[in-house]
UniProtKB/TrEMBL annotation:
UniProt xrefs under InterPro entries: AAA+_ATPase, ABC_Ni/Peptide_Import, ABC_transporter-like_ATP-bd, ABC_transporter-like_CS, Oligopep_ABC_C, P-loop_NTPase
Organism (species): Fundicoccus ignavus
Ranges of residues in domain ABC transporter: 9-266
Membrane topology according to the record: Peripheral membrane protein
Official protein name in the record: ATP-binding cassette domain-containing protein
Gene3D superfamilies, per the entry: P-loop containing nucleotide triphosphate hydrolases
Locations listed in the record: Cell membrane
Family the entry assigns: Belongs to the ABC transporter superfamily.
Keywords for the protein's UniProt record, in alphabetical order: ATP-binding, Cell membrane, Membrane, Nucleotide-binding, Transport
Signal peptide segment: none
Length: 358
């Protein structure tokens, strides 16, 4: 059976009106999401990951302006495949038909997404009542099986408890159970493990993977941590200053990265052989997009930058069927540049370690 595309984003451009002028936060982003697969969006803080996924969910800030784009969501209704541009529907329609029902989101901090005054049970069942008018008994049974799915014991007792009675890791499991309550087809996870300690983080990642295997849900995972990406993703989109600057399969990105920014992110990734004081950091800071005028915004931080980068933002070059890179270094006339030897060694080592697990 072939892959089934369920979400296609094309040329999404979003800006924000601010006192400093217009911030071009998202600049021509394309994304493709397939049933049962995990797409990761990775990049430093401020690169545009959250705005991209919030736009899919129809969560828009008051000063946000949509400059262009299509977000085509393909779904089944009454036994027939249909599709809709999520950017063309009203907030009301989005809430009634899609948000929380077919497309659900798990945020970074469980405390901000949970209601402290409502029991866990009422919060898990709320969406079922609103979207499907599920009878109370049935909703309760489903809430219990969702608790089991997310690895929480003593379901009966937990349903009557309040968020403050649970640990951070447990709360994030509850948030995932709430997100899954209406059997969504797409689960968007925005750094869902950042607020948790490392062992709990690993457990939540495993949990999301196990749920995906069971339910066939498609996942968009946003993170600044390539270590997380390696664990969860099938496809990776590397984002910088509101653009996808490299995308490919997880192997393309980890074993054959082409963009110097991706090299920087990979070099900055902690691994067992790297002492934290030796960790590489990409020089400089992400650009202020209110001041960006022309050229590649990565120019000033890029030790491999070419003169043309100063003037013209690079187009996207195709490396293979799955691998695309927005960098002038991929142009036929560009000087041939290899990734730093330390990174090359590190990737070789990772490859070897990964093959031992196969
Ligand atoms: N309401 C807003 N008004 C002005 N600028 C905004 C607003 N929301 C986001 N931005 C800007 O848009 C850009 C992208 O922000 P976004 O939150 O998507 O980044 P991110 O990659 O998700 O970062 P993080 O990892 O910190 O969440 C940033 O420059 C941010 O300052």
């Amino acid at each position: 059976m072939g892959r089934k595309k369920i979400l296609e984003m094309r040329d999404l451009s979003v800006s924000f009106r601010t006192s400093q002028g217009s911030v071009e936060a998202i600049r021509g982003v394309n994304l493709d999401l397939y049933k049962g697969e995990t797409l990761a969006i990775v990049g430093e803080s401020g690169s545009g990951k959250s705005v991209t996924v919030k736009t899919i969910m129809g969560i828009l800030a008051n000063n946000q302006k949509l400059n262009s784009g299509v977000i085509d969501y393909k779904y089944e209704q009454n036994g027939q495949m249909t599709s809709i541009d999520l950017l063309k529907i009203s907030k009301k329609e989005m809430r009634r038909k899609f948000n929380g029902k077919r497309i659900a989101m798990v945020f970074q901090d469980p405390m901000t997404s949970l209601n402290p005054t409502m029991t866990i049970g009422d919060q898990i069942m709320e969406g079922m009542f609103i979207h499907y008018k599920t009878p109370k008994n049935e909703a309760r049974q489903k809430a219990l099986s969702l608790l089991e799915l997310v690895g929480i014991n003593n379901g009966e007792e937990r349903l009557g408890q309040y968020p403050h009675q649970l640990s951070g890791g447990m709360r994030q499991r509850i948030v995932i159970a709430i997100a899954l309550a209406c059997d969504p087809e797409i689960l968007i996870c925005d750094e869902p493990t950042t607020a948790l300690d490392v062992t709990i983080q690993a457990k939540i990642l495993e949990l999301i993977k196990a749920i995906q295997e069971k339910t066939g849900i498609a996942v968009i995972y946003i993170t600044h941590d390539l270590g997380v990406v390696a664990k969860v993703a099938d496809y990776v989109n590397v984002m910088y200053a509101g653009r996808i600057i490299e995308r490919g399969t997880v192997d393309d990105i980890f074993y054959d990265p082409k963009h110097p920014y991706t090299w920087g992110l990979l070099s900055a990734m902690p691994d067992v052989n790297t002492k934290s004081d030796k960790l590489y950091a990409i020089p400089g800071n992400p650009p202020n997009l209110a001041h960006h005028k022309q050229g590649d915004p990565f120019y000033v931080r890029n030790e491999y930058a070419l003169n043309i980068d100063k003037r013209i933002d690079p187009p996207v070059f195709q490396v293979s069927d799955t691998h695309y890179v927005a960098s002038w270094l991929m142009h036929n006339n560009a000087p041939k540049i290899e990734m730093p030897p330390e990174l090359q060694e590190r990737l070789e080592r990772m490859k070897l370690e990964a093959s031992q697990y196969d």
